[in-house]
Amino acid sequence: MAEKNIQILDQQGMLQNYAKAVLGMLPLPGAKAEGLPDRTLRIADVKIDANNLAEYVKVCRLRLRDTLPITYPFVLSFPAVMNLLVSKDFPLPAMGMVHMSNKIEQIRPISVSETLTIDVHAENMREHRSGLLVDLVTEITIEGELVWRQFSTFLRKQRTSLSDEPRPEKVDDSPGSAGELPTTTLKVTGKQIAKYADVSGDHNPIHVSKIGAKAFGFPTVIAHGMWTCAAALGILEGRLPDATTYTVDFGKPVLLPAKVAVFTRKTDSGWELALRHPKKEHAHLTAKIEAR
C-alpha cells in the first residue's frame, strides 16, 4: 500500500480525536467517504517509555522484562489507529464500533531498547449479518525488519444484505465450556480499568463513564477488550514461544466491578484460553496461542 501520510500524535491529539469521534456520530452530509482510505499512517522513531511500560505490566498483572509483552504494541499503535478511525475519509463513525476479534503475530520479541516504526492501515471492509466489518492492520518494523503485526476486526452495527440470514449455530468447545474448574480467577475494578485507560490512552466513554456506557446500551462501565486480552496471558508468562500467534475472539463484555474465571488448555500447537463469568459461565474472551 502506498504511503500517503506520516504523522506523529501526542496525548493532546488523542483527546481531540475522541472529540472528533463524538462529532462523527452526527449525521453530517458529505462528512464520510464510502470506501476505505488508501493510505498508511506512520509513527516513526518510537522509543519505549519505561514508566508507561511499567504501569502497563502492573495494571495488566504481567511481569516487567527486557522485552515487550506481546500485547503492549497495541498501546503504542493506538494513536495512529484512532487517527485513522476519526478521519473524514474513513467511512464508518468511530464511536459505537465494537472490537470483535484480534490477531497478533509476534515474529520475534521486541527489546525495550529498540526503536520502532509503526504503520497502520484499514482493509477488507465486508458485510456481516450484524453490520459492517473492517480490519485495522498494524505493522511494526525495526530497521526494515517486520517484527510484529496485528489485525483488529471492528464491527459497525447496521443493516446489511446479510441481516435477514438465519443466525448460525455456535458450538462452544473452548476451555471451561464443559464445566471444568478454572485455572485461576481475576478481580477487575473500575479503578483498575480507569488506570488502564490512562496508561493505554483509550478513554472511550464506555470504559470510564457510567453515563457514557449507558448511552451505548451498557448498564455500567465495561473493561477494555485489550485489557482482558493482556491479563489473560499472565498465567502463561514464561511458557510462550518467541514467535507466537495470539488470536482472540471477544464475547460478552466484562461489567465492572467483576470477577472472571480464567481457563487454560494445553494443545499440540500451543494453548487455548477462555475468560468466563464465574456463575453464568458465558465467555468474555476465547483465544488460541500457537507457535509460528
From TrEMBL:
<dbReference type="InterPro" id="IPR003965">
    <property type="entry name" value="Fatty_acid_synthase"/>
</dbReference>
<feature type="region of interest" description="Disordered">
    <location>
        <begin position="159"/>
        <end position="183"/>
    </location>
</feature>
<feature type="domain" description="MaoC-like">
    <location>
        <begin position="184"/>
        <end position="268"/>
    </location>
</feature>
<dbReference type="Pfam" id="PF01575">
    <property type="entry name" value="MaoC_dehydratas"/>
</dbReference>
<dbReference type="InterPro" id="IPR002539">
    <property type="entry name" value="MaoC-like_dom"/>
</dbReference>
<dbReference type="GO" id="GO:0006633">
    <property type="term" value="P:fatty acid biosynthetic process"/>
</dbReference>
<dbReference type="GO" id="GO:0005835">
    <property type="term" value="C:fatty acid synthase complex"/>
</dbReference>
<dbReference type="GO" id="GO:0004312">
    <property type="term" value="F:fatty acid synthase activity"/>
</dbReference>
<comment type="similarity">
    <text>Belongs to the enoyl-CoA hydratase/isomerase family.</text>
</comment>
<protein>
    <submittedName>
        <fullName>Acyl dehydratase</fullName>
    </submittedName>
</protein>
<feature type="compositionally biased region" description="Basic and acidic residues">
    <location>
        <begin position="162"/>
        <end position="173"/>
    </location>
</feature>
<dbReference type="InterPro" id="IPR029069">
    <property type="entry name" value="HotDog_dom_sf"/>
</dbReference>
